[in-house]
Amino acid sequence: MGWKSKTALTALGLVLAVGAVVAVRTATFKAPAAVDTSSIRLASARPFDADLAARHLGEAVRFQTVSHQDPAEDQPAEWDKLHAWLQATYPDAHRAMTREVVAGHALVYTWKGTDPSLAPIVLMAHQDVVPVTPGSEGAWTHPPFDGVIADGAVWGRGSIDDKGSLVTLFEALDGLAKAGFVPRRTVILVSGHDEEVRGGGARAAAALLKARGVKAQFVLDEGMVVVEDHPVTKGKVALIATAEKGYATLTVTAPAVGGHSSAPPAQTGVTTLAKAVLAIADHPFPMKFSGPGADMLKSLAPHSSTTIRMAAANTWLFSPLLISQTAKTPAGAAMLHTTIAPTMLKGSPKENVLPQDAEAWINYRIAPGDTSADVMARAKDAVGDLPVKLAWVKTPDEPSKVSSTTSDGWKTLAALAGDESRAPVAPALMTAASDSRYMGPIADDIYRFQPLLLSVDATKMIHGTDEHISVANVERMVRFYQRLVETAAR
Prior knowledge:
By secondary structure, the chain is α+β, with helices and mostly antiparallel strands. 36% of the residues lie in helices and 20% in strands.
């Protein structure tokens, strides 16, 4: 037999061996977050009035608790009105819990459990909302702060983000208190007032709880949802974020001499800035098939096609394919790396004046595994010798740690989310930011999930025009929170 034949046989043997490994790994593949939740005894749902809950949410939307970039534009009286409304609307919850106000308008409620040896649970929902873009009010189906109930939904800014969570949490807690429920495990509700801009309320609440020695079993805040048409499974999936990205904004400043635009120098501050911004944007962080984003796909693989299952079971061979497929959408790509987004520019105040300096703001969402120091180093490397200055707008928030998918807290949330949604449950990475990022000192496990059923397309309305929540989703949320508290705290 010639050497060519031997080489061909060796290659064939290698292909067969690889094929056998792929086949075995595919056949025995188990999702990384597939834990046994049979030990969790889920509480049954109690009766409640979903239509009344929806009317209450409509009332809450009418308080214009808008957080502006400039705090001088905020209207503190709106938060005062919301607080008074909460006390009047949910008297049983307020009788059962102690209420504290920190950092001006952040709220900390404590429903003391009968067994102090049990670690408390912390539930979160913020009070503030983002502004409505000036001039866009006419594009809304219903005025953004009227809290109209129409076509089976509550319409208005904050109906989902995040008064939907705040009101349905209170609906659940008030109903439980009215029914005589007494928790064994302490329940703490934290409601920040400035999540959309500064997060000072949540930071103050976390400091208060830390000073008291609180170490929670888990924290649950807003975040992921039950996706109606997940691209991997083509059906419903309940996504619970086990981590969230860090947040940092970099300023890039190009100093210049200014002057009249009729006699510009060879390179102006604006052209220098443009080169620097393009250099940074063209030097992206590499995508990696690792962390919560990868765990999500691995967890959903058993519910997807044979091809995806095979790829997820054999990432040693198919990770480049998985990365390319996941990165076909911006949301998918964001799961796999630190993102770079130039967002704001400043130059001259007049069209015929050269700027004395030109400045850009670049927003980063930092993936677990990277740090703000990595971001700064990469930006400096990208701009090289360009005469620009790099600085943080404020101290960056580093990525959160990745929470457990084997803890009792995860088992409780996963069991309940699966039972309520009748869908697979998977961990995920939250690419946005939430107040829960400040709760690290008081809890090892922090999860981000709202029991909403939304299509991928419907999630685009959050922070956008025509934000609204269906009455059916209001009902889902009240029932979920009610069952969660009774399951975790009984």
